[in-house]
Amino acid sequence: MDKKLFGGVYSKREYIRKEVFVMLGMFLLTYLMQMKWMGICFVLCAVFLAFPKVMWYRHQSFYEKKRFEEAVTYMEYVIYGFLRMPKILSSLEETVKLCQGKLEEVIRHAVDRIRYADVYEDIYQEALGLMEKEYGNHRMRELHRFLIQIEQQGGEYRESLEVLLENIRQWDEMVQELMVERKELSRKVSISILLSFATAITMVGLLPQDMGRISDSMLYQVSSVIFLLAGIGLYVLCQKTLVRSWLSNEKEADMRPVYEYCLKHKERKNRHYFFQEKKLKRYVEKEFSIWLRNVILNMYTENVVVAMEKGAEQCSYVLKHEVLKALENIQKKPDSMGGYESFFQDFHMPAVKNVFLMFYSLSEFGTQSAQGQMNALIQRNNKLSNQSERIINEDSLGIFGIYMLCPMVLAAGKMLLDMWVFVQQFLVFYSRGV
Fold first, then answer.
1. Which of 111, 234, 319, 392 is deepest in the core (most CB within 10 A)?
2. Rounded CA gap, 17 and 430, in Å?
3. Is residue 174 part of a domain?
4. What does the CA dihedral 88, 93, 94, 96 come to, rounded to 10 degrees?
5. What gap in Å lies between CA 91 and CA 299, rounded to an integer?
6. Residue 298: which of 286, 283, 309, 289 has the closest Cα?
7. Dist. CA 246–CA 241, nearest whole Å
8. 390 located within any domain
9. Maximum CA extent, the chain
């Protein structure tokens, strides 16, 4: 009988087969480690309880990967459809023909919501909101806002959509690489755990037994149970860490206190200040590319200053405060570079400042006559966006280094304890001989 899990279907027979295989493997491991029946039963019970968790995390990881791929597919198809016919309904109708499964179902609901609406006020926000609820991501929300704006107000849109399309493609390629990287790290952790188990088996097999078996010691039996339980728990934690929503941008809960602390203590810097400043910079690097993408989209229809102001509407407090402060300085001296240089002037962030200097150049020459600089700005933003995603991934991958180190530490500790038990038996044997 098949069951559904995270939108997918798995075979109950296959599940039981894998569980039995894992239980037999663990039984063989405990047998080779010369463990007593009580210890064996304890370890097997732990495996029996941990196995459903591991399978749950694996299915959840697969589900998040599938959601990401469906979201990318939807956004690409909608952009292609809108480029052919600049109507939201027609692009959705064309997209739904190319999709299947859950994605097709959600798009059909959105299409029906538009087709059979009694009141057309905010109908696009409601219909496209169904997609955002299922596959919510800041790129999708930006795309929807832009499509609604073109549908309702008209204007140039082709170059802006091509910017979004290129950003989505690069994002897709980069996330696929990160998925492979995380899977490879998980594989290394699994190998490290297996090698630590093999070390324990080798240790108990190599020690001479003419003076007594160390496996007869209660200390050996208890330490073996703890050692195996630690390895099992570490593997479960590793699988849990692999689970990540690739669609959600993992933001800090509230960076306003950190930002205000750094401004307040910028004159007398200490160790805590540098820690908070580093935290703030990483946050800004994550958020800045999102704001910059909004600005680039607005620059095809607005001047630089208005585009910057509109882009700030969706920002968090820290970035919005700095943008509005810079805009205030720009309005005071519109022909001066100083206003553009005032953005995050209290912090050393060269990549961010370079973008604002490009804004100054665009404001001087105009966006229509500076297509080369616009292309350079787009490329810089794509680079910042990829860097932002990598920062998020690095934050979550740091724990894998500890996961790979732990099995080695556990194996070393187990070897030392086994040697201590052996030495104690040797001393007892020697004293009897004397």
1. 319
2. 50
3. no
4. 120
5. 24
6. 309
7. 13
8. yes
9. 101
Instruction: Give the highest mean pLDDT range of 102-111, 309-318, 380-389.
Output: 102-111
CA dihedral 23→25→27→30, nearest 10 degrees, is: -130
217: nearest Cα among 434, 432, 423, 431: 423
Predicted local distance difference test score (pLDDT) of residue 26: 93
Which residue range forms the structural domain that includes residue 371?
256-395
Residue 307 has pLDDT above 70, yes or no: yes
Whether 328 is in a domain gets the answer yes
Q: What is the 3-state secondary structure (H, E, C) of the chain?
A: CEEEECCEEEEHHHHHHHHHHHHHHHHHHHHHCCCCHHHHHHHHHHHHHHHHHHHHHHHHHHHHHHHHHHHHHHHHHHHHHHHHCCCHHHHHHHHHCCCCHHHHHHHHHHHHHHHCCCCCCCHHHHHHHHHHHHHCCHHHHHHHHHHHHHHHHCCCCHHHHHHHHHHHHHHHHHHHHHHHHHHHHHHHHHHHHHHHHHHHHHHHHHCCCCCCCHHHCHHHHHHHHHHHHHHHHHHHHHHHHHCCCCCCCCCCCCCHHHHHHHHHCCCCCCHHHHHHHHHHHHHHHHHHHHHHHHHHHHHCCCCHHHHHHHHHHHCCHHHHHHHHHHHHHHHHCCCCCHHHHCCCCCCCCHHHHHHHHHHHHHHHHCCCCCHHHHHHHHHHHHHHHHHHHHHHHHHHHHHHHHHHHHHHHHHHHHHHHHHHHHHHHHHHHHHHHC
Amino acid (1-letter code) at residue 416: L
pTM over the 0.85 mark: no
Domain count, the chain: 1
| 351 Cβ contact partners less than 8 Å away, ≥ 6 residues apart | 285, 384
The answer to whether 382 touches 170, Cβ cutoff 8 Å, is yes
Q: Which of 246, 250, 240, 241 is CA-nearest to residue 70?
A: 246
Q: Sorting pLDDT into bands at 50, 70 and 90, what band is 252?
A: very low
CA nearest neighbour of 235 among 355, 81, 55, 375: 55
Distance between CA atoms of 250 and 252, rounded to whole angstroms? Answer: 7
Asked whether residue 236 carries a pLDDT value surpassing 70, the answer given is yes
Whether the predicted pLDDT of 381 surpasses 60: yes
Express each pLDDT in 73-103 by its tens digit. Answer: 999 999 999 988 888 889 999 898 888 888 8
Q: CA dihedral in degrees (318, 323, 324, 329; nearest 10)?
A: 130
Per-residue pLDDT for 232 more than 90? yes
> Is residue 123 in a domain?
no
